[in-house]
Write a structure and sequence with these properties.
about 15% strand, about 40% helix, 7-stranded parallel sheet, alpha/beta, 8 helices, two-stranded parallel ribbon
Length: about 280
């Protein structure tokens, strides 16, 4: 449990699909990868890097994940670095799970000062080329994408924004991607990403509703391939390493957003590697 004065940062989706034993890693490479030569800040993707950054800055960090085992190594790394934190299981498909998780967080850590919504999904990646069109998308794939990209952040916002509004301070930061900028066809090997447009829209709505109450809402467009054990082993990452994004530097951007002065808040931030053209 954290001390009374320590600020609380909650990272929803603290572990990556591309970590050494992540679902995407095993799907793309057919096996668990060795991450012992990868810097600790990069082993768990964006969520893990953000958690480590806020812990380094003195926050008590809550790691949420569907299974506690997914985040045990990350929690150990944070503690070894002198930080404090805890793991809370949370399944974004279940409203009851979300409610239980935040009841636990409030009881054991306190109301969050910053919430980073970093949940991802891989639904759609294993569909074959002949099933690119919408008419072939199974409804369960669409529903999962909607749960994670739209319904999930809506329900999480309902859990944390009332206390932030009453306190007159707090940050609700969304980790999004380039597919949130406009509707795009799902190509073979991609997740069903167009529901993420609704995630961006929600950030815009919450900005209008809660900024005047002192709550900083921002949508962060991470426009590129993020370095992690699974992604750096991909052929396209090896062929063009300059196009791969450093999650430690992405985490610094999130911390910067949280610490911005109220007189000049950023509400959308797009991060793109120098070697690629920004998405629009």
């Amino acid at each position: 449990m954290n001390s009374a004065r320590k600020q609380v940062a909650v990272v929803v989706g603290a572990t990556s699909k591309w970590q050494s034993d992540g679902r995407n890693t095993k799907l793309a490479h057919g096996k668990v990868l060795d991450d012992s030569d990868i810097p600790v800040g990069m082993r768990w993707g964006v969520g893990g890097a953000i958690a480590q950054k806020f812990a380094e800055e003195g926050f008590f960090v809550v790691l949420t994940t569907r299974s506690a085992a997914n985040a045990s190594a990350l929690e150990k790394a944070i503690i070894e670095q002198g930080g404090e934190g805890m793991i809370v299981e949370l399944d974004l498909v279940s409203r009851e799970s979300i409610s239980r998780a935040f009841a636990t967080i409030r009881k054991q850590a306190g109301d969050p000062d910053v919430l980073v919504y970093n949940a991802g999904y891989l639904e759609g990646r294993d569909l074959p080329p002949e099933k690119e069109l919408l008419e072939h998308i199974p409804i369960d794939i669409f529903e999962t994408a909607q749960h994670i990209a739209s319904r999930g952040p809506f329900l999480v916002a309902q859990e944390v924004l009332p206390a932030m509004r009453q306190r007159g301070a707090g940050s609700f930061l969304i980790s999004n991607n380039q597919f949130s900028l406009r509707g795009r066809k799902r190509m073979t090997g991609q997740s069903l990403y167009y529901p993420r447009v609704m995630m961006r829209t929600l950030a815009q709505v919450l900005t209008e509703e809660y900024s005047e109450h002192g709550v900083h809402v921002a949508n962060v467009v991470i426009d590129g391939l993020i370095d992690s054990p699974g992604t750096r082993a991909l052929p396209r990452a090896k062929q063009n390493p300059d196009a791969v994004m450093n999650p430690v530097k992405i985490a610094e951007a999130f911390y910067y957003l949280h610490t911005q002065d109220k007189s000049c808040w950023t509400h959308e931030l797009q991060l793109t590697p120098f070697a690629t053209r920004p998405s629009f």
